[in-house]
Amino acid sequence: MKYSQAAQRKTVDTFWSDTPACEHSVQLYACETSFIDALEGYAAAGIRGGDAIIVIATPEHREALEQRLAEGGFDVQTAARRGQYIALDARATLDRFVVDGWPDEVRFRALIGDLVATAREHYPCVRAFGEMVGLLWAEGRHAATLELERLWTRLCQEERFPLFCAYSQALFADPAAAELIRAAHARVCPF
Predict the structure, then answer these.
(1) Is there a contact between 51 and 42 (Cβ–Cβ < 8 Å)?
(2) Locate the MEDS domain: which residues (predicted)?
């Protein structure tokens, strides 16, 4: 049975409105629309709650999210100027803390920890989304991906902010590999 777009949006909104601090969620998506729906729901729930949103994504996904948020009445440029919406390029950000193909914990904590601290200067609650893990996995750097997931989990628990990651299902020919990714997260998006 196919859901209507309104029913799908309600499911997404309900899922993200219940996101507690320090929860690390993942979506393994079959299509781009499903992913952008989930990302929009995650960001919009935070915006409605007065949170700062950190989005570390590919240019295509940032553009799609920002278009959706604007269509929903959210002024992305104004939010960026006031520090509520912080958007970074996933590849460029990844390149700042990966050394010889492996995530450097000190560099990761300095970079991402500073982003969270900056966002918290005006917004006590922060939500983060990152697809850097998906880029590493797509490159075949599976151990490095799991290490980055571990670093993210530790930081979101210590700093008490929710975190959302996403991977295309097309990256997982082996169901056991997809299960490794699911196991690295506290919550799996059901859509």
Answers:
(1) no
(2) 24-182
